[in-house]
Every structure is written in C-alpha cells, then in structure tokens.
Write a structure and sequence with these properties.
The chain has 263 residues and is an alpha+beta fold. The protein has nine helices and seven strands. The strands form two sheets. The chain has a five-stranded mixed sheet with strand order 1-5-4-3-2. Strands 6-7 form a two-stranded antiparallel ribbon.
Length: 263
C-alpha cells in the first residue's frame, strides 16, 4: 500500500475526473484538476513504488509542469528554467552579433513530451487508487490508454498564454499553441525584447527580430487547421506585441475533442 496520503476530497476529485477521462467526456478542465491533485503524489513517486527510470524522470517532470500551471508568478522549476535560459541565451547571442555564439544558443537542447506527461498522470492516478480498490488493475490503465493523445493536447492547451518575465531588457516569454507538420506543439515566443525594439528603430519600423522555439511536442494530430502552422512565413505574428489567439478544448457534437478560440 502506498505510504502517501491525500485528503478524502482530493481522492474524490481524482476519481470523479478519472471517470470523465474513462468515458471520453473530459476536456482540459478535468485534466488540470487531475494535474493539480496528483502533482504532490507524482513528486513523491518513490512512495508509490515508482523509483526506477524512466518512470521516475517522467513523474518528476509531470509534477514540475503541474507546478508551473499552478503558479502565475513563475520564477523557478525545471520547465521554467529551461525556457528562461534558452530565451535569454538567444537574446544575448543576437545582441552580441557573434555567429558562433548564435549557432550554439539557437539549438534547442530539450523539449517536453505531452504523451509522457499524460502517461505520468494516468500512472499516478491508477497506482494511488489501486491501493484502496483491489478491483483496479493494469487493465484499467490499458483501457484508458487510447485517450493519451487527447490528454496530451489538453496539457498543451493549458500552457497557452503562460508568461515568463525575462531578466533585464530581454522581454517577456509567452507560450503559444501552434501546428507543426500536422501535429500540435507548444512554442515560446519572446515579446518586447530590446534586440527586437532596436531592430524596429534601426529600420524605421520595417525590421523584426523574432525569438521563438518549441518547448513541448504532442502526438495529437491537427485535424481542424485553425491553429497557426509553423511555416517560417507565419510562425509568429511579427506585427503583434501580444501572443494573439488563445484556444480551449471542448467536445463536439459527436464527442470528439476539438479546439475553439476564446476571447
């Protein structure tokens, strides 16, 4: 039996939202509640018998990204630090006009995988609940595994419009949901950086320097074509000082998980 204890209200919330996942009626609302309810459990994964890699690493990242969603003032964490360091490094490299520096700073070292995060969510939930209910088995996990891609899209959608204020005059990093080669991805774009505003000034308003890079991949296909693609010509809206359209997940008339813009 697990040594980790959640409140009865948290356990009830997990059970309720997991039923929504099982019957395919969930959206990002239920996924967010599950992430927040399960993050401390995932962080203490050794107490539920999940000590070995790759489970250990995936559960640690799951807890970290759940923390990122929970806190509006984002100043720490693995996910936040990775985005911050890469965005600030790219800004500094562009400001330096050093091609060798830029060739190194421009390389994305690591991105999160929404599918692994979704698996960590389900593993945490089922391992914990199975300690109370012996009828819950691996078959329950395998049955719901077909929802992994949709859970991953919900996690990616929840990250939209998250902002990280970069140090000094490097601007603000914001997260966007885009479409890359037919699949959804989360990208980071930096707004209002000095290197960008300097380029506008030098060119009398005609020049732009856009800092952007992927931070999360999903295995959920884009079947709607309403999200901006990662075509170099339209990857980022160079005229805008804000992230632009934000989307939310909802269920269509046939029960399919879809995206729609919100104001």
């Amino acid at each position: 039996m697990t040594a980790y204890v959640l409140s009865r209200k948290a356990r009830h919330s997990i059970e309720r939202n997991l039923r929504k996942v099982e019957d395919g009626s969930f959206t990002e609302r239920e996924v967010k509640e599950l992430m927040l309810d399960l993050r401390e459990l995932a962080r203490s994964h050794s107490s539920i018998g999940l000590k070995d890699a790759p489970f250990s690493n995936d559960l640690t990242e799951f807890a970290d990204i759940a923390d990122f969603l929970a806190h509006t003032n984002r100043t720490r964490g693995i996910f936040e630090n990775r985005i911050r360091e890469h965005a600030e490094g790219m800004a500094d490299a562009l400001q330096s006009n050093n091609e060798e520096y830029w060739s190194t700073a421009n390389k994305v070292k690591s991105v999160s995988n929404a599918k692994k995060l979704a698996q960590s969510l389900l593993i945490s939930a089922y391992v914990y609940l199975s300690s109370f209910d012996t009828k819950i088995s691996i078959d329950n996990f395998l049955k719901i595994h077909s929802k992994i891609d949709e859970i991953g899209l919900c996690i990616a959608s929840l990250l939209q419009d998250s902002v990280i204020r970069l140090k000094q005059d490097r601007g603000t990093a914001a997260l966007l949901l885009l479409s890359h080669r037919g699949f959804y991805r989360v990208y980071c774009q930096v707004f209002n950086s000095k290197v960008h505003t300097d380029a506008i000034t030098r060119t009398n308003g005609n020049g732009r320097i856009i800092i952007g890079f992927p931070v999360m991949v999903t295995t959920c296909p884009d079947n709607q074509n309403i999200v901006r693609p990662t075509n170099p010509d339209v990857l980022f809206d160079q005229r805008s000082a804000t992230p632009g359209t934000v989307f939310e997940t909802f269920r269509g008339v046939n029960g399919e998980l879809l995206l729609r813009p919100i104001s």
